[in-house]
Automatic annotation (TrEMBL):
It comes from Dasyornis broadbenti (rufous bristle-bird). Belongs to the peptidase M16 family. GO terms for molecular function: metal ion binding; metallopeptidase activity. Residues 167-207 form the Peptidase M16 middle/third domain. This is NRDC protein. SUPFAM superfamilies: LuxS/MPP-like metallohydrolase (SSF63411). The keyword Transmembrane helix does not apply. Residues 2-153 form the Peptidase M16 C-terminal domain. Keywords: Hydrolase, Metal-binding, Metalloprotease, Protease, Zinc. GO terms for biological process: proteolysis.
Length: 208
């Protein structure tokens, strides 16, 4: 550690601090002409696969990293048990898998916008009924919206415990990747959250 500290000091101490605040693009909200999003785009894949992806452009969510609302919603949408979207679609033989969420980095989330996507891997039969599949997804999201999060603090706490366990018992990663990840976190989170801000859930705020 002493050697590493010496190297870092030698290499970085001469870089001047210009005293300028971190650049922010928060004033450039709603970059997408969202009415143009209300369309169905068909893309012919190279490999034989049927996939339906529904994408929403949302206000920036990075300020809520201690709450992680999109992680909470993706947990509910991606649930595979009884009463879930995927369970229903599998009974219809329309879908094989369903994924939803936001990577919380880069293109998917920044100071201007956040993107939330739900992707359904369809069967051949599901492809014939993709409108109905989309309708089921929207019905489920509408149900979550109408019922609200107030009755689901138990679920939020369950997610919080799972993420905490994964954090505390995670395998050692490649040191270079770890340092790179920490450097990114330093641009996004408060100092006390550099190590944990991208993984742990800290606060339950149903209004968010």
């Amino acid at each position: 550690l002493d050697t590493l500290e010496k190297w870092v000091t030698e290499i970085f101490s001469e870089i001047p601090n210009n005293g300028l605040p971190k650049p922010s693009f928060g004033h450039l909200t709603q970059p997408f002409d969202t009415p143009e999003f209300h369309k169905l785009y068909r893309v012919v894949p190279i490999r034989k696969v049927h996939s339906l992806t529904i994408t929403w452009a949302l206000p920036p969510q990075e300020q809520y990293y201690r709450v992680k609302p999109l992680h909470y919603i993706s947990w509910l949408v991606g649930h595979e048990g009884k009463g879930s979207v995927l369970s229903f679609l599998r009974k219809k033989f329309w879908a094989l898998a369903l994924y939803g969420g936001n990577g919380e980095t880069g293109f998917e989330q920044n100071s201007t916008y956040s993107i939330f996507s739900i992707s359904v891997t369809l069967t051949d039969e599901g492809y014939k009924h993709f409108y109905e599949v989309a309708h089921v997804v929207f019905q489920y999201v509408k149900m979550l919206q109408e019922r609200g999060p107030d009755q689901r603090q138990v679920i939020w706490e369950e997610i919080q415990k799972i993420e905490a366990n994964e954090f505390h018992y995670q395998e050692q990663t490649d040191p270079v990747d770890y340092v790179e990840n920490l450097c990114e976190n330093m641009q996004l989170f408060r100092k006390e959250d550099f190590l944990t801000g991208d993984q742990l859930l800290f606060e339950y705020k149903p209004e968010v």
